[in-house]
User: What shape does this take?
Amino acid sequence: MIKGFDFYKNKFGLRTSSEIHLGLGRIEGFLESIGNPQYDLKAVHIAGTNGKGSTLQFLKMILAEAGYSVGTFTSPYIKDVTDQISTVDGPIGGEGLEIAIQELLLSAKKEEISQLTDFELLTVLAIVYFSWSNKQDIVLFEAGMGGLTDSTNVLQSLISIITNISLEHTAFLGDTVGKIALQKAGIIKKDRPSVIGVRGMEALAAIKGYANQQQSAIHIVDEDFFILAEEGNSFTVKTSAAQYRRLVAGLKGGHQTDNAALAVMAAEVLKNHYGFGIEVSHIRNGLKKTHWPGRYEIFSKNPTIILDGAHNPDAVSSLADTLRTDFPGRKVKFLFGALRDKEAGEMIGLLEPLAEEIAFADFEFPRAAKAAVLADLCHHEDKSVAADLVETLPYIIERLTADDIFVITGSLYFIAEVKQLLAQINMLRPS
Assistant: This one.
C-alpha cells in the first residue's frame, strides 16, 4: 500500500497541518532552535514550472558517475512518501524516515514540531537526514511551490537552477508570468551562481533583474550556453568553456534535452567554481543512465503502455509532441486523472487530436477532480468514465492488443495510484 506522510506522523504522535502556508518564518525559527543543520549542507536548489525533477535526476546521475554521494529531496512521491528523500542507492525507505524523525525528536519537542506544515516538516526531515543521519557530499533540493517563500529556500545553495516558467498556482504565486518568475527567482542567493532555462521575455526579464540584485553570476540558455541538435537523438551543449558533444538523454522527449542541458551547465559550474571533479565522461554517462519513474516511463512494450505525469498544459504539450515523434500517424488510448486546481480542459484538449479513445478516472487524493467532471470537459466522440479504477484498469489492459498504444497520464498522484494497482496485478516490471 502507498504510505502517506500521515502514516509516519501517527506512528510518532506528530501533528502538523496539511494546508499550504507559504513563508519561511516558521521553518527558519524551528531550524534555528535545533542548530541550523541546513548550513552544513552543500546544496543545489532547483525551481521552475516543469522539468525540476528531471533536471535534478540528470545532475544526480552526473555527480554519481563522478563518484560523489548525492542526496535528493523531490515532490511529489510516486510509490511512498519516503520516495521524496533519496540517495544514489534509492529512497531512504520507512526505516530511514523513522531514523530522521527519531533524530529530530532528540532536539525538538512535539509541540514545536506541530507549528510546521506537512511540507515544512518533510523539508526539515530531509535536512536532518542528510546533515545528521546520512551525510552526503552534495544534496539536490527541488522547490515545492514557487521558490522565494517555499520552505526549501532555507538552503544556502551553491547553485540555483530555474527551469521553464508558465502560469501555475496563480492563487499563491501571482497572476502573471512575471510575478511567478520573481517567486522562482527568489531561490537565487547573493554572490552565488545560477543556471537559467527560461526563454520567455517577461519571465527572463524578472529573473535577470533579481539575479543582478543578488550579484549572481547567471548562466542563461541561448545566451550563455547553447543546445545544438545532432544526428539521431544526440545533442551538443556548448558553453563559453567547452563543448559537450554526442550527449544522449536517458529520459525521452525533446523537452528533456533542455533539462539535460541545464544539468550539464550546472555540472560545469560545480567543476569550475567549486572544484568538483567532474569530467566529460561523467556527464555523458550520467545523462544516458538517468531514469525517473512516472516521466514518460515505458512500462510495457507489448502492448505499449506508457506512464507520464503530465500535470499541466505545458507538460501535456510535451507529451503529445513526444508521442507524435515516437508513433507518427498513430492513435493513442488515454487514461487521464487530474487535480481540481489544474487547467484540465486545456490539457484534455491537447490530448484529443491524438486520441483513439479517452477514459477518465477517479483516484484517492483530496484535490482530485472527479472523473465525470473531467469527462464533461472532453469533446472526443469516444470518451468514458472509469470511476472505479481498481476494476477498470485491469479491464482496459486485458482489452489491449499488441498494436495498441496506451498512455496513462495526468497528475503524478494519479500515476502513483496507478502504479500501485499495476503492482497488484503483477505488471510492475517493464517488459
User: Anything to note?
Assistant: DSSP finds 16 helices and 17 strands in the chain. The longest strand covers residues 355-361. Residues 297-424 form a domain with the Protein-Tyrosine Phosphatase; Chain A fold (CATH 3.90.190.20).
